Every structure is written in C-alpha cells, then in structure tokens.
Amino acid sequence: MHPNDKLTHYELTQAGDRYFDGLADKFSRSLYQAPRGELRLTMLDYLLPQMLQLSEQKVLDVGGGLGQQAAWFAGRGHAVTMAEPSSDMLTYAQQWHRDEKTLPQEVITYLQAPLQELPLQVPGPWSLITCHAVLEWLGDPQAALAILSRLLAPGGQLSLMVFNRDALRFSNAVKGNLEKALSDRLAGKGKRQRLTPISPVSHNEITQWSVESGLQIVSVAGIRVFQDYLRQPPATPAENETLLALEKQYCRQDPHWRLGRYLLYTLIKPETPE
Ligand SMILES: C[S@@+](CC[C@H](N)C(=O)[O-])C[C@H]1O[C@@H](n2cnc3c(N)ncnc32)[C@H](O)[C@@H]1O
C-alpha cells in the first residue's frame, strides 16, 4: 500500500464519476511506467492509424489524463483540445508536455472540464473525438456515450477505448478469485487509490448503447489480449518483441480481441441518421 492511501479520502462526484485527483502519481507509476502501459501505447500507436482516417484534423481528447494521447496527436500535426476534469492530471500533463522539447505544445489547448460540460464549453461539432479509458470511471457510461455522439459532426469519428468487463472476470478467475468471478462482483468502488474501474463495460453494452446513441461501430480491437494472462512475464527484450508480435497478430481476430483488457472502437456518426 502506498503511504498516502490511509491518509486521503477520495470521493465520487455527485454524478458518481471518479475524477483522478490525487491519483496522478499512482496512475503514472502503476500504468505508464510499467510494461502494461508501454504495451498499451505501442498498440495504440499501431492501431489508431489503421482504425481512423487521420488528416491532421482537429481533435477533442475527452478525459485526457496525463496527456499521452494529446501528445501523440500533436506530434502528428493535429490541433488538440485536451479536456480533463482533474486539476492534478491536467497539471501533470501540461508539465510533461512542457518538458518534451520536441512536442509542438502550441497546438494543445487545455480545458479543465468533465465530459458532461463539453456540449456547452466546446460544442464543435467535432470531426474527431477520442475518449480512452474514461467511460469505466463514470456513474453513467451510457449517458456519456450519448453526449459524445452529440459532440460529433455528421461523418465524424469517435475513437473509444473501454475497460472490458469480460476480461476483468477472466483475469479474476485466472488469479484465483473464483467467488468474485462467479458472483460477478467485478466493479471497483472508486475509494482510496484503487485503480479498479467502477463501471467496467462489456462489448454487448457498447453495441447496444451505440445504436441508441446513433453511432455505428466500424472497427474494434482488443488491447492487451495476452499480456495479463501470462504465467511468466517476458524476461528479455526478444521475448518482449515476441509478445508484441502476438498481440499485433491477434488483436483484431475473433475470438481473441474479445478478451483484450481494453476494447478499442472506432465509431462513426452517419451523415444521415438512420
Ligand atoms: C484511466 S484515466 C484515462 C486517461 C487517459 N485518457 C488515458 O487513456 O491514459 C481516466 C480519466 O478520466 C477522467 N474522468 C473521470 N471522470 C470524468 C468525466 N466525468 N469526464 C471526463 N473525464 C473524466 C479522470 O480524471 C482520469 O483522468
């Protein structure tokens, strides 16, 4: 346990969302300074150019966290509006972007705001929106998808990544938490510095919610399909490369993508509603 765990009491917002105030360091340490964060970024770097039509268009990054995705788009010539409700996360992102000397920071606009306020603050409509690993931290992820749809321009693309409830069940079983898996008590409570999401999402839910929000799923992939289930983590750079090749080979293939720790979707808003 981190020394601060016992001292700080974290709350959900009135809407039941978990802003990451007080979590920036832990999130950075346990994800992005660890092999799983590295693999996530490598897979996104591999998949996003395949799954999105990118033409240096403006992008709205919703719940941008520590700013990795904003930096990725800025580095590829996009002007980015990074919205994030947690001042801790936003400050961390800005500082990190400033330290990255090669990053064209002038193209990034920072906005401290939750997703629910974006239709008022930055209505767009946007031709490209990213919302990665945010829905699972919200009290009402379905309503959030409807808001993202409102922000999209007709023909616009949404890159959505969610924490996969089915993979969480599987990994609990693999770790021996059989009762938890059987009773489906999978969600975290959002208390203290725990990073188990409060609203893990299933593919069936995304399929249904996207129809109800007037969005079409055009592609899907699993992120970290194998890594979490390995009995032995890769011990050498060569083994790491082999794992990466395996992840790349099967991330869009049935049935493997379905157990990715995260599911990555491209959704579009049709030009004419159906
Ligand atoms: C797991 S982090 C993901 C950050 C980043 N998108 C990434 O992929 O690394 C979840 C983020 O969602 C933010 N968040 C929580 N509630 C939100 C809300 N209502 N609107 C927008 N972002 C929210 C948190 O503050 C946190 O930065």
TrEMBL record:
It catalyses: 5-carboxymethoxyuridine(34) in tRNA + S-adenosyl-L-methionine = 5-methoxycarbonylmethoxyuridine(34) in tRNA + S-adenosyl-L-homocysteine. Pfam families: Methyltransf_23. Its EC number is 2.1.1.-. GO terms for biological process: methylation; tRNA modification. S-adenosyl-L-methionine binds at R40, G63, G64, E84, H132. Transmembrane segments: none annotated. InterPro entries: Cmo5U_methylTrfase, SAM-dependent_MTases_sf. GO terms for molecular function: tRNA (5-carboxymethoxyuridine(34)-5-O)-methyltransferase activity. Keywords: Methyltransferase, S-adenosyl-L-methionine, Transferase, tRNA processing. Belongs to the class I-like SAM-binding methyltransferase superfamily. CmoM family. Catalyzes the methylation of 5-carboxymethoxyuridine (cmo5U) to form 5-methoxycarbonylmethoxyuridine (mcmo5U) at position 34 in tRNAs. This is tRNA 5-carboxymethoxyuridine methyltransferase.
